[in-house]
Amino acid sequence: MDLVERSGLQNFFLHLKLLLSKNFWLFSRNLKPTLCQVMAPVFFCLLIVFFQATASEWANYELIDPPNGALQ
Predict the structure, then answer these.
(1) How far apart are CA 23 and CA 30, in angstroms?
(2) How many separate domains does the chain show?
(3) Is residue 27 part of a domain?
(4) Does the structure show a pLDDT above 80 at 70?
(5) Is the pTM of this model over 0.85?
């Protein structure tokens, strides 16, 4: 059997293909942790958007009936 000579770029793409297929196989076996890893950043970003919207709404809130008199 003759060994196949590959250039550096061909070797890189071969390794990339093999590693991606291995990772796909591992992630498909462990579906629950994979979904948690994908959904955690999405949930975190939505939480930040919620806090920003709440803070903006609170900052624009005006008192309708402010108290009359000096503050002590």
Answers:
(1) 11
(2) 1
(3) yes
(4) no
(5) no
pLDDT of res. 57: 86
Q: Which domain, by its residues, includes 23?
A: 8-59
Count CA within 13 A, CB hemisphere, residue 51.
6
pLDDT tens per residue across span 23-34: 999 988 989 998
How far is CA 62 from its chain centroid?
A: 36
Q: Does residue 67 sit within a domain?
A: no
Quote the distance between the C-alpha of residue 44 and its chain's center: 8
Q: Which pLDDT band, with edges at 50, 70 and 90, does 66 fall under? A: low
Instruction: Please say whether the beta carbons of 20 and 28 come within 8 A.
Output: no
Give the separation between CA 24 and CA 18, rounded to whole angstroms: 10
Structure letter (DSSP) for residue 60? T
